[in-house]
């Protein structure tokens, strides 16, 4: 059962508390995912908030063609990309060249226990954004390749290729750092 879809339907039917349940259920995962796009967890939390504000104000149509979580992450991704493009344009116009660089507190390290996982996350930070995103969606959030493709606005073949390349790149980084794991 897709609780998110049910909560969203209840919210659309006027039950305001249902939106709070959505936020409670999906906030952490969405913020962590968006952190892989923005490279700033402060910005990621801002984009997660903006995503839920969009649900509240715009009430976009959820068709049910994918799981609610897949749809929500796609809305979050599009929101983050829109704001990043907008900020980039504002930055280019700005003459003083100052850019707001937030403190990068690594929320993932607070959530994921164990030295091997922390080492893995540090290595993932060195990957390009698409590689980080696909690994996070498939292996941390347990999305299928089809769902990850919808979220990242790619086709399944591109996701399979990204997964293959990202695992290879991650393995290279880990071996370079002296990390040994039989599962890679």
Describe the model.
With 184 residues, the chain is mostly helical. It has 2 domains: 1-102, RNA polymerase sigma factor, region 2, helix turn helix motif (Rna Polymerase Sigma Factor, Chain: A, Orthogonal Bundle); 106-178, Orthogonal Bundle (Arc Repressor Mutant, subunit A). The protein is 72% helix and 0% strand. The chain is elongated, with a radius of gyration of 18 Å. The relative contact order is 0.11. Residues 93-113 have low confidence and may be disordered.
The percentage helix is over 70%
Largest sheet: none
- Architecture of the largest domain in CATH? Orthogonal Bundle
Uncertain segments: 93-113
How much strand content do the residues show? under 5%
- Give the beta-strand count: 0
Q: What is the CATH superfamily classification of the largest domain?
A: RNA polymerase sigma factor, region 2, helix turn helix motif
Silhouette: elongated
Tally of separate helices: 9
What is the CA-CA span between the terminal residues? Answer: 33 Å
Arithmetic mean of pLDDT? 81
Could you say which structural class the secondary elements and strand pairing correspond to?
Answer: mainly alpha
Any idea of the CATH class of the largest domain?
Mainly Alpha
What is the CATH T-level topology of the largest domain?
A: Rna Polymerase Sigma Factor, Chain: A
Q: From the alpha carbons, calculate the radius of gyration and give it in angstroms.
A: 18 Å
Please provide the ordered H/E string of secondary-structure elements: HHHHHHHHH
Tally of discrete structural domains: 2
């Amino acid at each position: 059962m897709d609780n998110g879809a049910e909560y969203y339907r209840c919210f659309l039917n006027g039950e305001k508390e249902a939106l709070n349940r959505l936020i409670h259920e999906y906030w952490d995962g969405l913020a962590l995912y968006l952190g892989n796009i923005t490279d700033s967890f402060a910005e990621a939390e801002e984009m997660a908030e903006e995503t839920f504000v969009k649900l509240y104000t715009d009430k976009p149509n959820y068709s049910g063609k994918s799981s609610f979580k897949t749809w929500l992450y796609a809305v979050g991704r599009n929101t983050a990309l829109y704001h990043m493009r907008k900020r980039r344009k504002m930055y280019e116009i700005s003459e003083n060249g100052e850019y707001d660089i937030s403190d990068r507190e690594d929320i993932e390290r607070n959530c994921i226990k164990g030295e091997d996982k922390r080492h893995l996350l540090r290595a993932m930070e060195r990957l390009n954004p698409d590689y980080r995103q696909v690994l996070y969606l498939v292996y941390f959030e347990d999305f299928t390749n089809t769902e990850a493709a919808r979220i990242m606005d790619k086709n399944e073949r591109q996701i399979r290729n990204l997964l293959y390349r990202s695992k290879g790149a991650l393995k290279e980084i880990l071996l370079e750092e002296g990390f040994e794991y039989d599962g890679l």
